[in-house]
Specification:
Layout (H helix, E strand, L loop, with lengths): L1 E4 L6 H13 L4 E3 L6 H9 L4 E2 L11 E5 L11 H5 L4 E6 L16 E2 L5 H11 L6 H15 L9 H12 L4 H8 L5 H12 L1 E6 L2 E8 L8 H12 L3 E7 L4 E7 L6 H7 L3 E2 L3 E6 L4 H15 L6 H4 L7 E2 L4 H11 L3 E5 L5 E6 H9 L24 H11 L3 E6 L2 E7 H19 L3 H6 L9 H7 L2 H17 L2 E5 L1 H8 L6 E6 L2 H12 L2 E5 L4 E5 L5 E6 L1 E4 L8 E4 L2 H6 L9 E3 L8 E2 L4 H7 L1 E2 L6 H4 L2 H13 L2 E2 L1 H12 L8 H12 L5 H9 L14 H20 L7 H11 L3 H10 L4 H21 L7 H8 L4 H10 L3 H12 L10 H6 L6 H15 L6 H12 L6
Helix pairs in contact: 1-4, 1-5, 4-5, 4-6, 5-6, 5-7, 8-9, 13-14, 19-21, 25-27, 25-28, 27-30, 29-30, 29-34, 30-32, 30-34, 32-34, 33-37, 34-35
Length: 882
């Protein structure tokens, strides 16, 4: 006799897996060894699944036991004797491999794999064997799949679960029934339990995660407790919830986790229960509620680091000044670095005190700028160690009204905790929930992550496997070196936008060059070092490239100056970026691999499609960022933030762009004009009164508008025609801009911008020769292909595209197109060597004959080698043999 069973207190995944398994073992009986959850019992009271009661089964007659959604013999009641009987074949289908458990399966048919639901494993077997599934069966299986994956939202969900769900929907699963069964409103008893849990709950910081531990003595909600715990986790926005509920004869322990790092299944097993990393439960007898809670907290703080420590949230490295620094200099450095407090060090670099901006300003007001900061520093500030619990720092900052806590080890300052660090640590999850609450449902569903987002899955799905492996190896090396490693900037932005970008920039909090050398050894890569900038380039054997840099901060001595750069923290490194959407980082270290760092709201701005600078002096410090803002606005279809647009207008009024070197401005123009569709960006430059910084006489006009539209069409046509051929699109559009300027203005542009000799040559050729070429191509006299070839063969592809764009009729376009697609590729079959073989002596006549052969080929006068030979004989005045 075959029996299919699941664990005690069966959930829908267990029930659905049983139904699916019976499709594989049609003669088997379905048996619930220890009842089911209330929702399962209610479902079975209405729907007959042909279940067999355990008391009606003669266990001694069982020859094959199929266990689903469990591999623990202690969770199947009296059926455990079948597992202990070596004559019984035991088949196991379970979706969470447990390396610590003893395998009970004795069959090659067993399948234990990590997916979101056991139902998925069974559905895959049905699909593989082409076993049909009826609509009601599909509905039951969907109940298990949707419940176990949280409607595909739990972190344990895999792509295989989605594929299984798609199959079940196609098979006729009734999703209305699934919704009505799984998402019923809470009844009054459940609401009472939820309220009691909220009142008797406390948060523990474990491994940097929030874990809620709650208790309740409300025992009226017996079957719905698991659903209430799930609601509790959603309401509180924590990473995991473990609750203990006092029943009449036992204490129910229920756990739910949204982070694989916090394994609630382990907690349940310690109480004799079971489950998985994200959902587990246990029934505890013989212990009080207080004892159970105490054990839960003890287990959590034993298994995981018991609290968030100062070293987890502090900012480092730290900018400090020595005790002899003058008040005036300290004030200047505060402004340059954008800081409000400086730690002060003695001659041995030991921490001695703090000085705040308020103290500096008061001293300057009293004309004490030459006084040393040692005379006004604060020496009794609260200090912390790297292993000081976060909650102690929080308490001290609140009680002392202290905005800045130095983290000191061996008398040396190793980091600081600021009020910003404090608030972000405490309330990142609150901010995310609040933001989601204010969004329209459609926007909330599409939101590009929140402050606590982990993009490990995105990295693995959107980057080549080899590159992901490289990043994981780099993160492991960073752990061994005890440094923090991040991938930053545009590649993170594009990852979140779903755009391919394999240009990965890595940033190290520490010595970037030393790390790059070690990483080069691990990856067998060539390493190019730039000592001056603290950067390195790794060239991997398979062609990938990694840029490695030290985390830096920068300040500007004066507007438009190149920045002065110094080593700093990742937070400061991101703050020096141009826009919030580029000030994002992804951590690559160990357990935090894939965590997004977003100090400045970059994810929010990506979601809102807004380009926003990080601070009000951004364009004053580097006006080239204006061109970047407009370039990104055009590329992504974003809009400039209100403040950012106002700051651009202010930078234009200050005439900062005229002070930029021609080289820096040209580099930004090349990037802007090289975008896929630069016309809109050029128009935005005109609207922002920025075209005049290319030349005062350059402005938007209908003529320029028409020319740019035509140029975009020509460039698109070329790109479609030559997928692998290089063409400098920016040069085409620069030709277009010069086309609308008078001759004197064009000369000024050449003086202003340091074009290379080749670039200048092409621009001048386009300026001088286009009109004549177009006139000849458009002449009434029909030109032969050879005439067109000789007219166009000396021109660059960029110039030819300008010709196409400038021509008003189709005649010129057709001839340029024919040249690019056909004429320029035509060659005679015969070569100079062939001519010598035919008896011709090398000399000026050679070139004339070869040119004539080419013309004849182009004009279709000859088509074969024989005809070419005849023409050569004729041109050379020779007689054919014979």
């Amino acid at each position: 006799m075959d029996v299919i069973a699941t664990h005690n207190n069966a959930d829908f995944d267990g029930l659905a897996s049983m139904v699916a398994a019976r499709k594989l073992f049609p003669e088997a009986k379905l048996v619930l060894p220890g009842g089911g959850q209330e929702t399962v019992r209610n479902f079975l009271a209405v729907h007959d699944l042909d279940m067999t009661k355990l008391k009606d089964v003669d266990i001694s007659q069982i020859t094959r036991l199929v266990l689903v959604d469990t591999q623990d013999p202690d969770r199947i009641g009296t059926l455990k004797s079948c597992v202990e009987n070596p004559l019984v074949e035991v088949v196991v289908f379970d979706h969470h491999p447990d390396p610590t458990s003893t395998r009970v399966d004795r069959s090659k048919q067993s399948m234990i794999q990590s997916v979101g639901a056991t139902t998925t494993l069974l559905v895959e077997q049905l699909r593989r064997r082409h076993i049909p599934v009826m609509p009601f069966e599909a509905t039951v299986m969907a109940l298990g799949l949707y419940e176990e994956t949280g409607s595909f939202t739990f972190p344990s969900t895999t792509s295989r679960d989605f594929e299984a769900g798609s199959f079940l929907v196609a098979a006729g699963a009734d999703l209305n029934m699934v919704t009505e069964t799984l998402h019923r409103p809470l009844d009054p008893d459940a609401v009472a339990l939820l309220n009691d849990l909220l009142e008797h709950s406390e948060v523990h910081y474990l491994e940097g995660r929030k874990v809620l531990v709650a208790t309740s003595t409300v025992d009226r909600c017996r079957g719905e407790a698991a659903g209430v715990v799930h609601r509790l986790a959603e309401l509180q926005g924590v990473d995991a919830v473990v609750v203990a509920v006092m029943m009449a004869d036992r204490v129910e322990v229920i756990g739910r986790s949204r982070r694989s790092e916090i394994d609630v299944g382990w907690i349940a097993r310690e109480f004799g229960g079971g489950g998985h990393a994200v959902a587990a439960a246990a029934a505890v007898k013989g212990q009080t509620l207080a004892e159970v809670k105490e054990k839960i907290v003890r287990l959590l703080t034993t298994q995981y680091r018991p609290t968030l420590l100062a070293q987890d949230v502090m900012t480092f490295p730290v900018k400090a000044i020595d005790v002899d620094t003058s008040v005036g200099e300290a004030g200047q450095r505060m402004t340059a670095y954008g800081l409000n407090v400086f730690p002060i060090l003695d001659e041995k670099d030991h921490y001695t005190g703090l000085v705040s901006r308020e103290s500096i300003q008061k001293a300057l007001f009293h004309r004490l700028g030459k006084m040393a900061v040692r005379d006004i520093m604060q020496t009794d500030a609260y200090l912390a160690q790297p292993d000081t619990p976060f909650h102690e720092i929080e308490t001290a900052m609140i009680e002392r009204n202290q905005r800045f806590v130095p983290i000191v080890k061996d008398n040396k300052i190793v980091g600081v905790v600021t009020r910003t660090d404090l608030l972000r640590t405490l309330h990142d999850d609150v901010l995310r929930v609040a933001r989601m609450r204010t969004m329209r449902p459609s926007d909330a569903e599409a939101e590009i992550g929140g402050p606590l987002r982990n993009v490990k899955g995105l990295l693995r799905s959107r980057l080549p496997y080899r590159l992901v492996t490289v990043l994981e190896e780099a993160g492991q090396l960073a752990d061994r070196c005890e440094v923090s490693l991040f991938v930053v900037g545009g590649c993170v932005r594009d990852l979140l936008l779903g755009i391919e970008n394999l240009d990965l920039d890595l940033v190290i909090e520490g010595d970037g060059i030393a790390f790059a050398r070690k990483l080069g050894e691990v990856l067998h890569a060539r390493v190019k070092i730039h000592e001056r900038f603290g950067t390195a380039i790794l060239l991997l054997p398979d062609g990938f490239r990694l840029d490695v840099a030290t985390a830096r901060t920068e300040y500007y001595e004066y507007p438009t100056a190149l920045p002065t750069v110094e080593q700093s923290s990742i937070k400061k490194d991101l703050y020096r970026r141009d826009f919030t959407m580029n000030a994002l980082a992804v951590r690559l270290n160990g357990k935090s691999f894939g965590d997004v760092l977003d100090f400045y709201g970059g994810q929010r701005d990506l979601n809102d499609k807004v380009i926003r600078v990080l601070h009000g002096l951004s364009f004053v410090e580097d006006p080239t960022r204006v061109f970047r803002a407009i370039r990104f606005e055009s590329r992504f279809g974003f809009r400039l933030g209100k403040d950012t647009a106002a700051l651009i207008a202010g930078a234009v009024k200050m005439n900062l762009f005229q002070r930029l070197s021609g080289h820096r401005l040209l580099e930004e123009l090349k990037l802007l004009l090289g975008e896929r569709k630069p016309k809109q960006a050029i128009k935005r430059l005109a609207e922002s009164h920025l075209l005049r910084f290319i030349h005062p006489k350059l402005s938007w006009s209908d003529r320029l508008d028409r020319l740019l539209v035509a140029l975009e069409e020509a460039v698109d046509w070329y790109r479609l025609l030559y997928l692998d051929r290089e063409m400098e699109a920016w040069l085409v559009y620069m030709m277009g801009l010069l086309e609308v300027l008078p001759e004197r203005a064009v000369k000024d542009v050449f003086k202003r911008f340091p074009f290379s000799e080749q670039e200048a040559g092409r621009l001048k050729m386009a300026r001088v020769g286009c009109h004549t070429v177009i006139r000849r191509l458009a002449s009434q006299r029909s030109l032969k292909p050879a005439d067109v070839y000789h007219l166009l063969s000396g021109l660059s592809d960029e110039t030819l595209l300008l010709l196409m764009a400038k021509s008003k009729g189709d005649t010129v376009k057709r001839q340029v197109s024919a040249f690019l697609t056909t004429y320029q590729h035509v060659k005679p079959i015969l070569t100079g060597t062939d001519l010598k073989t035919m008896g011709l002596k090398p000399g000026p006549k050679f070139k004339e004959i070869l040119d004539r052969l080419l013309d004849a080929r182009l004009n279709g006068e000859i088509k074969t080698e024989s005809e070419e030979r005849d023409l050569v004989m004729k041109l050379a005045g020779l007689k054919a043999d014979g």
